[in-house]
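Tutorial, part two.
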Amino acid sequence: MRFTRLRTAIGTLAVAAGTVGALAAPVAAHANTTPAAVTPASCVRSNLTTGTQGPGTVVNKASGTSCHDENLVFANDTSGFGFDNYAGFYRKSNGAWQIGSRGYQGPVYNGNVNFLVLLSDVIPGTPMSVASQFDGGDSVQIAH
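Running the prediction step on this input gives:
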């Protein structure tokens, strides 16, 4: 009797392990080892030069895209330090420039940036720009 219970218990465990293995195998087969990059295909990209604690090169927010923000996607701090803090600016209807509510973000190091939102929910046609906190003249690329 004891041997039968032990054999039944082992058989039940083997079936349970097989079921778990069978369920895990399809998941493992479809697992992606590289994370998906955030790259909204409909975003327009623009190369800008930053201002020093104020707007630099100005671009109007693109219309007809599903991209609603001003996203920093590349930065090159030309000062030689290799990083800076960046903020989005937009022009208000009265013509005055306004820093975005997110303020300066960083440090952002030279190279590709994973869609760092500088301005949120920008209305198409709105003039916008990017500012460097420490020094201007940096080369940046935004997606909007």
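Residues 61 and 125 are 5 Å apart (CA to CA). In part three we will examine how such features are distributed along the chain.
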